[in-house]
Amino acid sequence: MHTSTEDRPSQPRSATSVSERNACLAALSPAAFSLLKPHLSRTTVPGGTVLWATELNESNTYFPMSGLISVVYSMANGDSVEVANVSREGAAGTIFDSGRSARGVVQFAGSFITIGSHQLLDLAQRNAEIGQLLSACQGWLLAQSQQFAACTALHSAEKRLCRWLYQCIQKMEIDTLYATQEQIAALLGLRRTTVTLVARSLLAEGVIEYGRGRIRVSDLAKLRHAACECCDSLGRESWPAARLIEQQSMILDE
């Protein structure tokens, strides 16, 4: 991955200014985060950037503070489908894909905290809390890939599209996405015409507004109602930060 010096904001002034913008890092104790802090760097990455792939010699882990990373698998014919995505609720990178069979693509531009995966693994071996963070993030990616597989096989195109929109909005804590219908169709393994028909229906029902690659959610409650049950299985209580907080509470109660 390459970003120009102009694309990189100044380094955060404190640990808090970094960690509070990624829920996973925010869930760490000050002691655990202090071990990570010297090895963290911050960068801004444009949409469409490939963070890791089989042909790239990259070995980093990314903690989004904004934006969203799609984990995609590609077929021999060039088609690809999203099997997981991560924003402020977690982390992604080659550390979770030892076979390097997936690609990590910045779906929506944003700011990311990065650390070398080998360095992160070393710290995880030295600190149980950082080890729990890695386990929680890996479990989250696996849970998504399993749920997405079931969703693709069993749910309608409309419910899947609404699920994807709802999750992106929820994870990034925004109400507007900049994505084309072609982009969404490719991620969900749908035809562009199918996405167009669903978008028109949602527009007519007052759920979204869209035009020129911009989608604004007008009624989040209606969007959630139109989405499939996968939103419940992949809700906030399943996010890595929630698991970390629960584990720490259990330790304190012992």
Description:
- The model is unreliable at 1-16 (pLDDT under 50).
- This protein has 2 domains: 5-152, Jelly Rolls (Sandwich); 156-227, Arc Repressor Mutant, subunit A (Orthogonal Bundle).
- The strands form 3 sheets. A 4-stranded antiparallel sheet has the order 1-8-3-6.
- With 254 residues, it is of the alpha+beta class.
- Helix 5 (128-154) packs across helix 11 (240-253) and helix 6 (157-172) crosses helix 9 (220-226).
- A hairpin with a 5-residue loop joins strand 4 (68-74) and strand 5.
- It is built from 11 helices and 11 strands.
What attributes does this structure have?
alpha+beta, 11 strands, 254 residues, disordered N terminus, Jelly Rolls
User: What's the shape?
Assistant: globular
Number of domains: 2
Strand content: 15-25%
Computed over alpha carbons, the radius of gyration is 18 Å
End-to-end CA span = 44 Å
Order of helices and strands: HHHEEEEEEEEHHHEHHEEHHH
Find the count of extended strands (DSSP E, 2+ residues). Answer: 11
Give me a quick take on this structure.
45% of the residues lie in helices and 21% in strands. It has helices at residues 15-19, 23-26, 30-36, 117-126, 128-154, 157-172, 181-188, 192-204, 220-226, 230-233, 240-253, and strands spanning 41-45, 50-52, 60-64, 68-74, 80-86, 92-93, 103-108, 110-116, 176-178, 208-211, 214-217.
